[in-house]
Every structure is written in structure tokens, then in C-alpha cells.
């Protein structure tokens, strides 16, 4: 047994190991539409999904109370229902950069393991994905 598999079983994290990320097309469309409606403010939500057969499948968005402005967004994550299968987050950036800020990186490290940022012009090509360390991540729209 490989060390990371053993550690995953001991720490209870093996159910979160995945090799691919699939995001449902309707989730992408919702992210785009909400980002356009929220502009010039940021929009923020949690990504809902689960890992099955080494594929993380994003199936929906979870909305919690958020304070937004043109400079950022603060989510009240303590209000997340326990029954939610959140695996990360998504938020918009007003402007052309989908690179994470220091605040984004801190949030990524504390909440989930797959994160998305959408920037102007708020289309499929302006979405970037990251892991919990802020490294770019690949995903496929299904």
C-alpha cells in the first residue's frame, strides 16, 4: 500500500482523493449568469459535489450569506448546513484577472479542495480553477 493511500485511510481523507474534475454545464452557466448580475460587485458561493470512482463531480452551488463589494466578498461559512457536500468555492472578480489574491489563497486553504474564479468578460474561457494550495487545476465541463 502506498504511503499516501495509507495516510488517507488513517486520516479519513481517502474519500476525497480524485484524479479528474467534472463540472456540470448547468453549474458553469449559473456561475456566468450570477457573475454578470452581481457586477460590479463580486459574487461568491460554495461548490457542491462528491468524489466517485476518482472523479470529483461538481453538481451545484450552495449559497450562504455573503457581504460583497467591488473590492471583495466575505462568506459566513459558519452558517453552512451540515448536510451540504461542499468541496470548494467559486467567486467572481470584477476585472480581467482570475488570479487568486492573498485573501483567496487563505480561503482556499481553509475551505475545500477545488476552487474557481471567474473574471470579466464572465464567460467559459474566463474561468480558472485552483486546488487548495492555489495551484492551477484542470477541469472538464460535462
Automatic annotation (TrEMBL):
Domain of life per record: Archaea
InterPro entries: JAB_dom_prok, MPN
Occurrences of domain MPN (ranges): 21-136
Pfam name, any one: Prok-JAB
Magnesium among keywords: no
Keyword annotations of the record: Hydrolase, Metal-binding, Metalloprotease, Protease, Zinc
Protein name stated in the entry: MPN domain-containing protein
GO biological process: proteolysis
One MF annotation (Gene Ontology) recorded for this entry: metal ion binding
Amino acid at each position: 500500500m502506498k504511503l499516501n493511500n495509507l495516510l488517507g485511510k488513517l486520516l479519513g481523507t481517502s474519500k476525497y482523493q480524485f484524479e479528474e474534475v467534472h463540472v456540470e454545464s448547468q453549474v458553469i452557466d449559473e456561475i456566468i449568469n450570477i457573475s454578470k448580475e452581481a457586477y460590479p460587485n463580486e459574487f461568491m458561493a460554495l461548490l457542491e459535489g462528491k468524489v466517485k470512482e476518482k472523479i470529483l463531480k461538481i453538481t451545484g452551488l450552495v449559497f450562504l450569506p455573503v457581504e460583497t463589494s467591488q473590492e471583495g466578498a466575505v462568506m459566513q461559512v459558519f452558517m453552512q448546513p451540515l448536510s451540504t457536500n461542499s468541496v470548494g468555492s467559486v467567486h467572481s472578480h470584477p476585472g480581467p484577472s482570475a488570479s487568486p489574491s492573498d485573501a483567496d489563497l487563505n480561503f482556499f486553504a481553509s475551505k475545500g479542495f477545488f476552487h474557481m474564479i471567474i473574471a470579466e468578460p464572465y464567460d467559459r474561457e474566463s474561468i480558472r480553477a485552483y486546488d487548495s494550495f492555489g495551484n492551477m487545476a484542470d477541469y472538464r465541463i460535462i
